[in-house]
Design a protein that fits this description.
Largest sheet: 5 strands, mixed
CATH superfamily of the largest domain: Perfringolysin, domain 4
Shape: globular
Strand content: 25-35%
Helix content: 10-25%
CATH topology of the largest domain: Immunoglobulin-like
Strand order of the largest sheet: 5-1-10-11-12
Order of helices and strands: HHEEEHEEEEEEEEE
Number of strands: 12
CATH class of the largest domain: Mainly Beta
Structural class: alpha+beta
CATH architecture of the largest domain: Sandwich
């Protein structure tokens, strides 16, 4: 008969001390329990202007991902003009963002007028992105070369 020794988990004392320390950190305000979960329960939307001129990204969104929501989105991000080299970021709760797209973004080129893009493809929750993801609209090029690259966590989707 052979006896095999199996490793045991941490002693109960270690677990109690760790739980006590974590509770003390919450109570003292050193750790925000909401912040621990907020990155998982939200989306981040970034708008980056890598052009030489101001851009009006015209980002439209809806909390629903249905066909009709794509035709009649409920909201738009109030970004105003995003200046060259700037980036703006928005955070949404997971249930607030069902679909998102850029609808005819404009690049303002002095003396030459505005350059307008076609709307991007609509990207939707659970198909193109999920909770905790970062959606980025990166505007590139100038005038006739003006365009937008849409990505989720660095993966191009449009």
């Amino acid at each position: 008969m052979s006896v095999r020794k199996t490793p045991m988990g941490p002693p109960r004392f270690v677990i109690v001390v760790a739980a006590t320390c974590l509770t003390a950190a919450f109570v003292a305000g050193c750790v925000d329990p909401g912040a621990l979960l907020s990155t998982i329960q939200t989306f981040e939307v970034q708008i980056v202007n890598d052009t030489s001129f101001a851009v009006d990204p015209n980002i439209r969104y809806d909390d629903d991902a249905s066909f009709l929501a794509g035709w009649f989105p409920a909201g738009s991000l109030d970004t105003g003009l995003v200046t060259p080299g700037d980036a703006v970021s928005y955070t949404f709760d997971c249930d607030q963002l069902g679909l998102i797209f850029s609808d005819e973004a404009e690049q303002v080129v002095p003396l030459f007028g505005d350059y307008v893009l076609d709307a991007t493809d609509i990207i939707d929750r659970d198909h193109d992105y999920g909770c905790g993801d970062t959606i980025q609209f990166r505007f590139v090029g100038d005038a006739l070369d003006f365009g937008v690259v849409v990505s989720v966590n660095g993966r191009v989707v449009d």
